Amino acid sequence: MSVIVQKFGGTSVANAERIHMAAAKAVAAKNAGHQVAVVVSAMGHTTDELVDLAKQVWGSHGGQPPKREMDQLLATGEQVTIALIAMAIHAQGHEAISFTGNQIGLLTDDKHQKARIQQIDLHRMRKELDAGKIVIIAGFQGVTPDGDVTTLGRGGSNATLVAIGAVLHAEVCENYTDVDGIYTADPRIVTDARKIDRISYDEMMELSSVGASVLQTRAVEFAKKYNVPIHVRNSQHDKPGTWIVAENKAMEHIVVSGCALKKDLTRVALKGIPDRPGIVAQLFAAVGQANVVVDDIIQNVLDDGTANISFTVEHGDVADLKPVVDKKLVEFGGGTAMYETNLAKVSVVGVGMKQSTGVAAKMFGALADKKINIQNISTSEIRISCIVAKNDAETALKAVHAAFDLDKASQP
Amino acid sequence: MSVIVQKFGGTSVANAERIHMAAAKAVAAKNAGHQVAVVVSAMGHTTDELVDLAKQVWGSHGGQPPKREMDQLLATGEQVTIALIAMAIHAQGHEAISFTGNQIGLLTDDKHQKARIQQIDLHRMRKELDAGKIVIIAGFQGVTPDGDVTTLGRGGSNATLVAIGAVLHAEVCENYTDVDGIYTADPRIVTDARKIDRISYDEMMELSSVGASVLQTRAVEFAKKYNVPIHVRNSQHDKPGTWIVAENKAMEHIVVSGCALKKDLTRVALKGIPDRPGIVAQLFAAVGQANVVVDDIIQNVLDDGTANISFTVEHGDVADLKPVVDKKLVEFGGGTAMYETNLAKVSVVGVGMKQSTGVAAKMFGALADKKINIQNISTSEIRISCIVAKNDAETALKAVHAAFDLDKASQP
Predict the structure, then answer these.
(1) Model pTM score
(2) CB neighbourhood size of B3 (10 A)
(3) Domain that holds residue A59
(4) Nearest-by-Cβ selection for A54 from B69, B87, B124
(5) N or C end of chain A: smaller count of CB under 10 Å?
């Protein structure tokens, strides 16, 4: 029998009414003849409230509360939701059974607060699905082989959704959110942005990495690896949303599928660094350990035996980054650091780019027409990104969206 | 090294400040050279709030939400507290680690909402205690061999306290509450009631069963079985409370240790029931299945081949009891039921009664002096109880307390 896995985020289970709406989606899929598993997040602002409780207890004590105990605390949020969804399904006349990460043997490594899924024990889930029950699973959480509760970090519930979909060989992972799907651009900025019907895993990953926030890169990567289709759709109605699927021939006709914007970037420019082998590797290793993601790296070696390196980071990471950079410059024995804030990155993504020419030229032309200065360019096989001033960001996104006719492009 | 197990009830962990006070008690015991395990309840009104959430989801659907899912839901309350207490102890500079019922292998049967403890896996607790950590354990919850979360029912956290104390061979189980200990009578009624310093397990069980609400009969029974002393004390200060211990010679000199009152009793009088063998057993089996506790049973067989049976129940149970009784009377083919409300029971308890005479006479005399009519009498080896009108209840308790000089009796 075909399996459908559904996931409901925090706003889709925020209160008793929403919980019943989510339960009804699961029951409808069951009545349509599928086996149904449901992954849920914590209700509404529950996670924030638990974090606040921890802060009250931890008080002005330095550092952070022990991560193991934070995970023990936060995992209760999803546990509340699974029990309530199971009750709602019973109230609607169907059988359901709820499981924590521990109860379905969702094993992870022991990196608390950002654990990685290693294994899922199918036995209990299969037994209950085969008995005709709707199985409800707490997202975002797992357990170490020692039995310690872990959480999967940001977007962890989507990782759970795709992992459950993979082990159950699901026909589809339905990701219910409060938007209608993936758009050709952020509809809050580009009013004629259009919902995309189908998009490839690679395009979705690129869009996520350059600013589309609906789905995390990691979850999509996992879905691609196990070839599980994800259907992003709105929990408030039944209309189809966006299918994220394996690339196919038809998609190649779409040169650009969507565009995205990442605001609040800072460019870090390091000047006069001694040009010794391994120096760049040391620098970025230290930056990575501070959990700061860098992008748009440019390095020039000058005649005087020094190098200039620049890269961009999200503005929110600058506070974590600065001490790391300062320490490294002292170790290197030279160099200065400058921070240029108020930058943004506008990107276009499309698998058709691989077979098409002139995409970059069209994008640069669209920006030039609006007198927008391009400060840096970076590309992948299916993406082109330009760094622009933050003040130009929204104008740039609209210009690019219009240049590629994204409001009317037909889908494969 | 000696082990102390402490338990903090809901009001003792109701907010961040109280949680730090509880943590400080654990740290003080650790600093005094003991290994320390701490059992905690859900914070303040958390359990009520979770029950309310379930009611909202269950709505006007008949019956009750599935018990397995209620347990899954309610167990989150204690899980929140254990994480916060562990954080508070870390903030106070000591190591602590929290465990759910599942994580310490606290196995129960599968009677959801009133599960019984069957086994506790010592391995993980021992390892952490020996590593110098304070071990924090979620009270009130366990897990079936299949991994389903269970709760232990009313007073379940005290059952956890005593069970943990038993397996760790604890020197004492400290039960922290918001009162100073066990009193010779309810101090809200009898103003000169005195805190009892030491009381035997049997006396405590009798007092609990006739109205003293600090500690459940079941937890004391378990403590007696494994000979673990319980120290009931106030979490707001460091003064000694009441020790509940094995009976000793000195206790025999105290004829009456305390008295208690149970209000809101209803007497059920069944008349004209066919006097056939097994009829009474069938009746009380059905009543027991409805989870109604009966007491003070009197049966008379009349010349006409019928029997009269009367017994008392708590008034709150009458709604559950009535349909059971009505059904049985139909099955029996005869008989009527009358319900007499507004009764109360006043009791005196003391191990010294076993060796002493005249206790009953003194009690009846004290009630007669106040012109209080005794409607029924029941006794055990160490207890005498009288049913009186609810209006006379508090006067009766005061009279009995005074007659036995409980305000000034010395303790063994």
Answers:
(1) 0.87
(2) 22
(3) 3-178
(4) B87
(5) N
